[in-house]
């Protein structure tokens, strides 16, 4: 009988090409990984059981063999297999791979679950706390972390998600979490919004920080000279934003109005800083020599202060995310 023609197979790269390896794992895309059973058995009870099964006597098994080694076909592709094998191997032989996108994290996570690689599951999930991943996909990260019941990663992702609008667009991993998980996230977000509102209604944190008007002279310079330059900016009229009951410069009032609106949806320090960068650009391109020279310094200090206050205001709210019996 003629054997069926197998697709061209190639060997994986080091360290999965070792001559003394004792088993071969073949990925879904036909790459052969020569690995040591011991490392896999130590990392995973699944492999420990699999490799511990009694071998059938020679010739009595339909086990595929190659170079005297058993060949085990797995359903993972070579990229995923490579990543999770690196996690299984001792770090002297293979460094933990870096995972910096969610698609990779998800497929390795699925493999880790399937093969009961508990330690690796935890390590993979730590990649969810990678700011690179969080900045792009806070909501997807939240869903994955919540699904894996990881408290720290869930809270970190929820906090990054405050940069986004309250009601998100549909996202790929929404089905990983339950409606009550999602409701917990929305409630958290909403409570953070409420908590931050007080900051904008009472400027005590600001007047405490600068002590008096001369502590932030740039804010009250309209119609006066500053370092030889005359400030031709107008004064603000929105009395909600009058520190010490005095009218500040109009562009700052505009900034506060904008931030007030933005924080109603995205209560994050990042919101405050990003809006400050826009204000700095705007003021610099406006026609005031006095302000354009010092807006950056003044607004950087001010927005860092406000961002810090925002982060402090939302920090205690995170108990909402785990003070349930579920996490
Ligand atoms: Zn000015």
TrEMBL record:
| CDD domains reported for this sequence | BTB_POZ_ZBTB_KLHL-like
Question: Under what name is this protein listed?
Answer: BTB domain-containing protein
Residue span, BTB domain: 21-97
- Which Pfam families does the protein's record reference? BTB (PF00651)
Q: Which SMART domains match?
A: BTB
Per the record, the domain of life is Eukaryota
């Amino acid at each position: 009988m003629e054997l069926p023609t197998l697709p061209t197979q190639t060997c994986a790269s080091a360290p999965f090409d070792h001559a003394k390896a004792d088993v071969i794992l073949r990925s879904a895309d036909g790459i052969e990984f020569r690995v040591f059973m011991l490392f896999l058995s130590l990392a995973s009870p699944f492999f420990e059981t699999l490799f511990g099964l009694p071998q059938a006597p020679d010739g009595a098994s339909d086990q595929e063999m190659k170079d005297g080694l058993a060949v085990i076909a797995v359903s993972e592709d070579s990229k995923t297999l490579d990543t999770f094998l690196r996690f299984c191997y001792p770090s002297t032989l293979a460094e933990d791979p870096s995972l910096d996108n969610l698609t990779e994290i998800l497929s390795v996570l699925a493999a880790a679950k399937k093969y009961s690689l508990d330690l690796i599951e935890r390590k993979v999930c730590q990649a969810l706390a990678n700011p690179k991943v969080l900045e792009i996909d806070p909501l997807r990260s939240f869903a994955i972390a919540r699904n894996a019941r990881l408290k720290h990663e869930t809270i970190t992702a929820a906090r990054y998600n405050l940069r986004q609008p309250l009601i998100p667009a549909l996202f790929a991993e929404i089905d990983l979490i339950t409606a009550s998980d999602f409701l917990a996230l929305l409630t958290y977000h909403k409570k953070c919004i409420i908590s931050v509102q007080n900051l904008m209604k009472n400027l005590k944190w600001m007047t405490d920080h600068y002590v008096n008007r001369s502590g932030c002279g740039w804010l009250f310079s309209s119609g006066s000279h500053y370092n030889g330059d005359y400030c031709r900016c107008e004064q603000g009229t929105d009395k909600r934003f009058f520190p010490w009951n005095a009218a500040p410069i109009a562009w700052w009032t505009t900034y506060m109005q904008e931030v007030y609106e933005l924080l109603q949806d995205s209560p994050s320090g990042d919101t405050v800083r990003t809006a400050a960068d826009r204000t700095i650009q705007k003021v610099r391109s406006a026609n005031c020599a006095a302000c354009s020279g010092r807006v950056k310094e003044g607004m950087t200090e001010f927005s860092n202060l406000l961002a810090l206050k925002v982060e402090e205001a939302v920090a205690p709210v995170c108990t909402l995310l785990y003070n349930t019996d579920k996490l």
